[in-house]
Amino acid sequence: VGFVCLLFVSTYAAGTHFVLMQTTDIHGWVSGHPHNATLNADFGDYCSLVEHLNQRSVDEDFEFLLFDSGDLIEGTGLSDATPIHGQYIFPIMEKIQNYTALTIGNHDIGHASTVQLMEESFIPHYNNYKSEKGGKYLTGNSYMKDPDHNFIGEPYSLYHTRFGQKILLMGW
After folding, report:
1. Where is the signal peptide (predicted)?
2. Beta bridge partners of 6
3. Cα radius of gyration (the chain)
4. What is the pTM of this model?
């Protein structure tokens, strides 16, 4: 099971407010649950919520941190009944640019073709902002057996808040 660990590596600034939001185990459920009206928010609703929280963090001066703990696929026909599992789910997930960090789940690495797709497009999408601080897609315990490859993502990243704190992010 994937998760992202946060370690604050600088002193806490008095009065700084953090809001953390985490998704996990989406398992392809981007269309909501139409059979259950109380659980029927879809991925568009989620994107809207994230955009509103991000804007609110700017307007109200707090730090908004958004994480995903993996298992994006294996659960619906949209994620599984395709030649490459996740080929439609990963592009949908990429619509959210505000992730502070994401990590891989055990269901995301069940097929070599899925891992290849992730390595070729999904992970670079989030790690294209990579600098000396690292990327956003963190997988400190997931690596390729191929000796020419290391970790599937980055093992860690150093995140700088807009208020000057540094946060060490690690993905498992």
Report:
1. 1-15
2. 169
3. 17
4. 0.86
